[in-house]
Structures are given as C-alpha cells and as structure tokens.
Amino acid sequence: MSDSAPALATSTPQSVRTICAKFGNTPHRLLDILLAVRQEQGWISPQSMELVATATGLTRIVVEGVASFYSFLPLTPKGRVTIRLCDDIVDRFAGLEAVRAAFEAELGITVGGTTPDGAVSLELTPCIGMCDQAPAAMVGDLVAVRLTPDRAREIARALQAGRSPAEVLVADHDCLSPLERVKAQVQDNIRLAGQVLLGEVPLDAGITSAQGMEPTAIIDAVEASGLRGCGGAGFTTGRKWRFAAGAADPHRVVICNADEGEPGTFKDRALLTNRADLVVEGMAICARAIGGREGILYLRGEYVYLRDHLLSVLEAARSRGVLGVGFDIRLQLGAGAYICGEEGALISSCEGLPGEPKTRPPFPVTRGYLGHPTVVNNVETFAHVARILDRGADWFRAMGTEKSHGTKLFSISGDCAWPGVYELPWGLSLRELLALVGGEDAAAVQVGGPSGTMVGRDSFDRRLAYEDLATGGAVIVFSPRRNVLEIVDYYMSFFVHESCGYCTPCRVGNVFLKKAVEKFRKGQADEGDIQYLRDLSATIIETSRCGLGMTSPNPVLTSLDNLPLVWAAVTKPRKDGIKATFDIQSAIDGGRRLAQRRSMIFDRDFSE
Amino acid sequence: MRKPRVATVSLAGCFGCHMAFLDMDERLVTLMERVEFDRSPLTDIKTFRSRCEIGIIEGGACNEENVHTLIEFRKNCDVLIALGQCAIMGGLPAMRNAIMHSDDPLRECMEEAYLTGPYLRNLTRHVPNDPALPLILDKVYPCSDIVDIDIQIPGCAPSGDIIFDTLTALLDGTFTGFDRQHLRFD
Questions:
Q1: A254 touches A283 (CB < 8 A)
Q2: Are B52 and B76 in contact (CB under 8 A)?
Q3: Could you give the domains of chain A?
Q4: B131: chain A residues, CB-CB within 8 Å
Q5: With an 8 Å Cβ cutoff, is B88 touching chain A?
Q6: ipTM confidence
Q7: Percentage above 90 pLDDT, chain B
C-alpha cells in the first residue's frame, strides 16, 4: 500500500481489469476490488463500475449498490488526499470546531468540498477510534491526532504544496518499520497494563499448548475459563465455538471482528498495535478448536493506518508456522460503515455485499461466511483465548466477578485527566474507575458507547460487569459543563447516519427519535413527549432487525432513567392544547410570498 | 338538563366524512335526542355559540384559515376528534407535500394546479389570488401537528357505524377504544 497521495489517474479499462484479476474476478472480493480502484483513481467512476461488473460477472447495479453503501467509496471525484475530521462528540468537546474552521480557512473550502486544484477534500466522519487524543482526523490513509488550529493549517498548507500525508505526518517515514510508523502517528496511551493482555506476554505460548491438545479439550478450556465475547454482547465464547465445531459443513471460518466502530472505543487499536501476535494466535487456536480452514481479520476502514503493520504480523506468523498450515488469515479492510461491526453485516461485507445484517436464524455458527459455519469474535476475545490456553482456564476464571471472568480493556475518554486504555479486572465500580482515570467530577458517564448506558452521578456505585453494567469497554466521561441533551442528540444523529436502511423501524424510527430529542432541546416539549420517546423507543427496539436498532434508543432511554432531571428541566406543561412545535409564521411564509399579500388572520397589523 | 353540544367542521377534506356522518341514517334521530349541534355545516352555524363537549374535525390543515379554525375548535371543545384519514394524516390533499425536490415547491404546485396541468381549462390563466382567499400553508398538516387531538376515528371515510358507536360511547362515558371489526377496511 502506498501512503503517498494517489495521483488522480484517469480510468483506464486495463487498470481496472488488472485490479479485478488480482482478486480473481471473484464477486465476493468486490469490496477489496472497489477499495483498490479508489486507491488508484480516487473515486469509483461509472466506467469503473461497468468494468468491475463485467469482470466479476455481476450486474452494474449490484456493484453500485455496494459502492454507494460505504462511506469510503466516493461516487464523485475527490481530491488526491481526503481529510476526514473525526466528528465524535468527544472531538467536538475537545475543539473540533476550531480545527475545522482552520482547515476550511486554509483550504478555502467547506466540509464536503474539494480544493479547486484537486489536492484536498475535506469531510466529516464518525468516531475514528482516537477519542483519547481528540480532536483527530484521517489524512488519506494516515491519522493525525491532537489537532490544533495551527497544526491543521500546517497540514493543509503542506498537502496543498503537494507533499504526501506520509511526509507531513510521519517524520522519516521511509526509514521506519510499519509498527514504528503506526506509533509515530498515534499514541498507545496504555495507562494501566493488567496481567492478561497488556503486561508481559510470551510469544506463541498459547498456540504451542493448544497444539498439544485435542480440539474438544481446547473448547472445554475456553468454556471453563468463563470467557465471554468482548465486543459488547458478551456471548459465552466456548459455546459459540462448540456450535461451530458441531456444524455439518467441514469448511469452517474464523473471523476476527476488528471493526471497532462504537464511538468512544479504541481498545482494539491498542491490541492490534501492541498485541497483534496474540490476536493472530487466538484465531489460530480457534481454527484448531473448530476445524477452521479459512480466517479473516476484518479491519475497519478507519484503521487502515494499521494495515501494513498487521500484514507484517501475519507474514511473521506464517514464517513461524502459526499460520499457513491448513489455516491462513486474510486481511479484509472495511470502508467506513459502523453497521459492519454487527457480525451478520460484517460477514456480508466480507462477501462483497453491502454491509447489511443477515436474518437470524440461521446464526453464523451454522451458516455464516459464504454459507460456511463461521465464528466471529472480537479482537480482545481472541487475545484472551491465547492467554487462557497459555496460563490455564482456572487462572483466568479466578479473576473478575462471579459472572464476569478475567480482565477487560477499557477505553476511557472525555473529561478526565488520563484518557487511554486500561486493563482492569471486571467488577470495578464506576467511582473507583473515575478515581483511577482522574474523572472524579464527572456528572455523567456513557458506559459502552452510544448503544450502552448513560449513568448519572447517583449511580456511580454501579459495577462494570455483566451482572450490572455490561460493556464492550468504552467509557466516556462527561463533566458537569456538558449538555446531556446535546450528547443524546449527537448520538441519535450518529445512529441515523449509520442505520443501514434495511428495516423501517431503524431507518425511520431513529429519525423520528432524533426529531423528538430536538424538540426537547428547543424547549417545545411537554410531558406527553416523554411518553412518546418511550413508546417510539420500545417500537424501534422490538421491531428492528439487528442490534443497531435494538440498542439505538439507549442514549434516550438510559438518560431518561438515570438523569431524569435533565429532561424534566426542559419539559414544559402546556394548557391550551396547541402544539409548541407548530409555527404558523413559517408555515404561511411561502404562501405570503406567492400571493404577495399579508395574512388577514395572523399578521396582526394587517390593514387594507 | 342541558344537552351535550357537538360541533363539526370540514377543513382540507372532501366532505366525505360529513357524508359518512349522515350514513348513520335513522340513528341520527337517536343521536339528536341526546345532543345539541353547535357550529357545524349541518346547522350552518359559523361561530361557536357556547362551549362544546365534543368537536369533530374532518380534513387536515392546508391554509391559514384551517389553522385558525382548528385552534378555535381546540379552545372551545372538551374532546376533539379527528375524523378520517385527512384529519389524522393529511390524506389525499397531503399528496402535494411530495413536491419537495423543487426550489419553490409551492409555486410549482399552484402552477400545475391552475396553469400547466394537462387536464385544465382555466380561461383566466391566473392562479386565483383574491384578497379574501386564505394564504396557503407550506404543506398540508395533520390536525395533530397543530393541536392536541383526543381521539382519531380512522377510515376514508369512516363508516357511519364507527362514528355512531364512538359518539354514543363517549356520551355514555364508556369509550375505551375501537371494536376491531370497525378497523377493517376491505
């Protein structure tokens, strides 16, 4: 991969055909093909789509369906470098507005635009996993963190002068190893290393021990450890593996979900940077346990800066014999879609389809990737597995609480003194955690990202564990200065943006929910609107097809439950029965213009 | 004893719901024994004589006069009923809300309705603009966008049965919802 700005090549039929051929003209590699076309030409032109369709035997509309689904596959020409400012709420609170203004002023364009010389496009994107060093941005395939207006101007000037993102962001880029380049861009921010993942870890100890075990014994060990999926849902890992191992189809697939898209989560970033060996090892162990023949590491498009590093880690694993014998892993890059963190959508994406969830059942463990039994686990889960096989199930099980065993990585961001990654045993109270991270004055904490739980100060004794506050690890701290409704409003706009659009309750319901929240922010809401929020949320949760819609009302519901006074403060009782949201003046404005006269009824000073 | 009073009005509707009102046939007599009609096209009374227990709205709001009337009804009625699909959702008149991919949707709508539509015969070649005409709203609003609505009777038009049953139950103080068979429209 080249970090330098791709020159805007004109679409030559030959180059597109070459790309398709490189991926065997296989339809299920469509995402890779389109990403490669974008890499070469800067966008996905109509001709390219025709050519890709012809080469892969798909129809043009299928190709366009995939291309238009993903944010990172532009259908209009873009600049040589696209700057994607991370528009997360944490970045907003950390000064995104000033950085954005600096970029806009220096480049002479607004967000969504491209400089006239075709050098730079400027865009906004949801959380890119850098909340602990916000404000951040993707610059081409690289990442810039802790941006200031000065730094923004510097970057903008350098890019416009024709320098590549690599030259601008990474000193001595060409002399560095892939891992050094990663570390030159992004700080690890590992604040507390626990004894499972981030402490000292021997190489290949887990897989070595697994190689001496029967597959069923491996599954037994994983099950006995009490390990649960670390992506957020918390399904028992051993059980998932047992289902896949028992499936009829002998071709089984192991997928690592590194689509860490939940805003406020960046723990997998730390693992993929510092413990990628462990993750690969865990996948190899899983392959041995379930009889996996094929492995996919699905890396979110925002983490493309990790790609070269991960490829070298995979290569090293092959040379050590961990991979390559009966089981290998390919790296599948995503293209900017939060929904692809949902396992069905992730599998769809790996199959070259739009990242839409699949109908369940059948569950992926029986029919997943290309119809084969598939285990999808989070990055952290695989890393834990490798350690469990090394140190034994009892060692792991002894840590944590009764139902939550082992340690967990927490991504801490927001208004605290020491944001970053913490490895802690399960069961800490929020209060203890806040003391640890320097966030004691917090007024609210978002646990588990937008789809998790918002907790107020009176509930800081609640514990981080599956028994109480289950979480994939994101903890966002909000100080009393922050407007809770602004946060809820932002999270709803995030879900509106990221809904895949397949099912109506999620596609439409979240829009309605966001509008209802806006009504509160404008002070136009009454008690009935609280009930409306709850009713609509219940409908969305009950009728949505996948986890996105089943959790998207959580910012509203959990803040209503845990911070009711915030909502009550902007709820006004109405006596006259007339809706505050209806504005007659704006409703008749167009009519007034058209008729070129004033209203006899609503313009008070009307006279003939 | 003073009889409960009922007021009705048709806003942006087709009067079909008022026709449906008459579909309760001889039961109208039964109803008349229990209530007094105030402002209504049925009585041709144009303004409220006194406060009413029940107000019935047909049609949504497409112009400023509709808004004014609707607010008058809300102020003067205890229970406000949206009768039929136009009152509830905007109905057929709200089809004009679909003209949204235009720089000037209102003008486009009026021009198609009065000047450029293929099935027109408008000898004046003008969009009507008499000062007495109320100003048109930017879109057609369902009643519940403008005022609180207590009960919505669905249908296009609702049957005479559902109207009679609902009113009777309201007068008896026993209204709890609609009979399922009244909510079938095939």
A1: yes
A2: yes
A3: 13-69 (1.10.10), 81-184 (3.40.30.10), 205-397 (3.40.50.11540), 407-478 (3.10.20.600)
A4: 597, 600
A5: no
A6: 0.91
A7: 89
d(CA A530, CA A434): 30
Sequence letter at residue A292: G
B102 to chain A, closest Cα gap in Å: 13
**Which of B63, B134, B148 is closest, CB to CB, to A577?**
B148
Res A5: pLDDT: 41
- In chain A, which residues have their Cβ closer than 8 Å to the Cβ of B104? 590
Q: Give how far B146 is from chain A: nearest CA, Å.
A: 5
Is B66 among the domain residues? yes
| Distance in Å, alpha carbon of B153 to nearest chain A alpha carbon | 19
Closest residue in chain B to residue A592, using alpha carbons only: B135
- Give Cβ neighbours of residue B51 (< 8 Å, ≥ 6 apart): B5, B76, B77, B78
Q: B141 φ, ψ to 5°?
A: -105, 140
Is B68 close to A589, i.e. CB distance below 8 A? no
Q: Using CA atoms, how far apart are residues B173 and B165, in angstroms rounded to an integer?
A: 12
List chain B pLDDT tens, one digit each, 186 residues: 789 999 999 999 999 999 999 999 999 999 999 999 999 999 999 999 999 999 999 999 999 999 999 999 999 999 999 999 999 999 999 999 998 788 899 999 999 999 999 999 999 989 999 999 999 999 999 999 999 999 999 999 999 999 999 999 999 999 999 888 777 665
B71 near A CB under 8 A: yes
* Residue type present at position B62: C
CATH number at residue B23: 3.40.50.700
Task: Evaluate if residue A147 carries a pLDDT over 80.
Answer: yes
- The residue segments making up the domain with residue B16 are 5-95+140-183
In a domain, B116, yes or no: no
Into how many domains does chain B fold? 1
Question: Is B41 part of a structural domain of the chain?
Answer: yes
